[in-house]
Amino acid sequence: MIKKTIDLTAAGKKALEKELEDLIAERPAIAERIATARAFGDLSENEEYSSARNEQKVAEGRILEIQDILKNAKIIREGKKSKVALGATVSIKLSGRAKEYTIVGPTEANPAEGRISDASPIGKILMGHKAGEILDFNGKKLEIVEIK
Asked: Residue 1's pLDDT is what?
């Protein structure tokens, strides 16, 4: 079996550890809601019971997912880089508009917060290139202004 690695920043790892801690702490409250709803009687038409069981299922699924991610995590080193790589923050101009992205693994990607995956279309184009280079991105001019 091939061991999969999941690239995470130190901040991403810390955020996942916090989320895991919160989910584990929520377990007793969810179990209490299930017990209370079960006491209402007929489970086949008990919406409170179904809702609480669904909440438990989602929470337990997320706990397993986070534990798997953390078990297979490889922390990427952030900081100044000469080429675009995982952990780099890149300032670009795309069709004349300035943007700044931090390149992260797919698990942490959130374009609305300026974190894009190295596996995303723009991430793939940027990887390995240096500041000052002009690249073609879907027929548009993409200039790498700075790598931090």
From this structure: 55
Q: Which amino acid is at 81?
A: K
Cα–Cα nearest to 134, from 82, 81, 88, 94:
94
6-75: CATH topology is Helix Hairpins (1.10.287)
β-sheet bridge partners, residue 135: 142
> Which residues in 53-113 belong to E strands, given as ranges?
73-75, 89-94, 97-104
The CA-based dihedral angle spanning residues 83, 88, 93, 95, taken in that order and rounded to the nearest 10 degrees? 90
Q: Name the pairing type of β-strands 6-8 and 73-75.
A: parallel
- Helix 47-71 / helix 10-38 crossing angle, nearest 10 deg: 160
Predicted confidence (pLDDT) per residue in 108-117, tens digit: 999 999 999 9
CATH classification of 89-147 is 2.30.42.10, yes or no? no
